[in-house]
């Protein structure tokens, strides 16, 4: 009786686990599912880089406007040369001890990548006066700063635009959406 019980236990142990065929089928199914999900995930990550750059520039503009009001002087936000998303906020006329040339800055490597392009047809420097109004560039109406990701095809890229009004209002909007959608520019 003891021998029969041992045989039964041995046969149960030998049957536990997965066969090589079962493991191969599971691996093939997982590979197919991952292949289907990689492209949308990559697009989502790249579109988040656009969002990060737009929100960063918007935050920098708000900082420049609030520093201008707080310090009672003109303060600039200067976008880095080229198409980079880096920027620096500083006083228009630096005064030692009270208003430095660089109050705060953001590097391109902080949240976005070299694939992000920032284009501002009105120039790379935006100045706010002590009342929080935009004084430079001298253009009628508002100015737009367009943010795009060159590593994405146009069909999947969620381009954004930072709009700055003469009165100092700052807004992030989507140029590809039409009104009455609140995201429209």
Please characterize this protein's 3D structure:
The protein has one domain (16-173): minor pseudopilin epsh domain (minor pseudopilin epsh fold, 3-Layer(bab) Sandwich), CATH 3.55.40. It has 185 residues and is an alpha+beta fold. It has helices at residues 2-15, 20-71; strands at residues 75-79, 87-91, 104-106, 116-119, 125-128, 134-136, 143-149, 160-164, 170-173. It is elongated. The strands form two sheets. It has a five-stranded antiparallel sheet, with helices on one face.
What's a concise summary of this model?
36% of the residues lie in helices and 22% in strands. By secondary structure, it is α+β, with helices and mostly antiparallel strands. The longest helix has 52 residues, at 20-71.
Instruction: For the largest sheet, list the strands in their spatial order.
Output: 3-2-1-5-6
Topology order in helix (H) and strand (E) letters: HHEEEEEEEEE
What is the CATH T-level topology? minor pseudopilin epsh fold
Structural class: alpha+beta
Shape estimate: elongated
- Per CATH, the superfamily is minor pseudopilin epsh domain
Amino-to-carboxy terminus distance: 84 Å
Low-confidence stretches: none
Task: Determine the strand fraction and express it as a percent band.
Answer: 15-25%
Total domain modules: 1
Mean pLDDT across residues: 85
Largest sheet: 5 strands, antiparallel
**Under the CATH scheme, which class?**
Alpha Beta
- Helix fraction bin: 25-40%
For the secondary structure, the number of strands is: 9
Individual helix count:
2
Task: Give the name of the CATH architecture.
Answer: 3-Layer(bab) Sandwich
Task: Round the Cα radius of gyration to an integer and report it.
Answer: 28 Å
């Amino acid at each position: 009786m003891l021998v029969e019980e041992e045989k039964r236990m041995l046969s149960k142990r030998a049957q536990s686990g997965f066969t090589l065929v079962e493991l191969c089928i599971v691996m093939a199914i997982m590979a197919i599912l991952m292949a289907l999900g990689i492209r949308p995930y990559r697009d989502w990550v790249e579109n988040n880089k656009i969002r990060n750059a737009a929100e960063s520039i918007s935050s920098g503009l708000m900082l420049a406007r609030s520093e201008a009001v707080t310090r009672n002087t003109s303060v600039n936000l200067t976008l880095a040369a080229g198409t980079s998303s880096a920027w620096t906020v500083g006083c228009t006329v630096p005064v030692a001890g009270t208003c430095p040339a660089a109050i705060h800055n953001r590097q391109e490597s902080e949240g976005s990548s070299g694939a992000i392009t920032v284009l501002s047809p009105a120039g790379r420097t935006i100045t706010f006066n002590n009342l929080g109004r935009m004084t430079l560039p001298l253009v009628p109406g508002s100015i737009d700063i367009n943010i795009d990701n060159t590593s994405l095809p146009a069909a999947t890229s969620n381009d954004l635009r930072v709009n700055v009004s003469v009165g100092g209002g700052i807004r992030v909007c989507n140029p590809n959406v039409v009104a009455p959608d609140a995201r429209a520019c």
